[in-house]
Amino acid sequence: ENGDVFIFDLLMENGRNMINAEDSLTKGLFEKYEDISAPLCIDEYYNRLFLWKEDEIQKNTMHQICSDIRSIPFRQYAEQFEIIDKKTVSLVVPQDQISRQLVETLKYTGNVNIRQLRQYTCSLQQRELEDLIRQHAADDYGTGVYCLTNLDYYDDDTGILFEAKDYYLD
What we know:
The protein is of the alpha+beta class.
């Protein structure tokens, strides 16, 4: 009731199946539950995820890497183990005059207020960002803050596009 939610079914991309086990798990819950935000649905999701990752969870328990509570290597543990492997990266999409000016400042000075840019970012998988970089549609200008450089790769209704919009010349 507070907004629109769009769900994309990524069956194929460039001839290869894009659905992984987590996506299949989620798709099954969409089919089973009318309201996926219901506590029962969320509980079932994590129970299934735990069963699916049980071996990995067991081999990465704290006692495997630490025998004394006073020396728990929290950073090492966090870096080595993820129950949901979804590494995402941020991409700045300049959509108005303010965001375009922030990107220009970043481009020419290498410095910008990251907090101001944050409201213009979207999350992508690392491979998606690499695809945009290969197409010369994204750049970090040597700063590590990636920006969409070609707005033909963005649509207000669907978000990031991985192929530019087609234009026909008369």
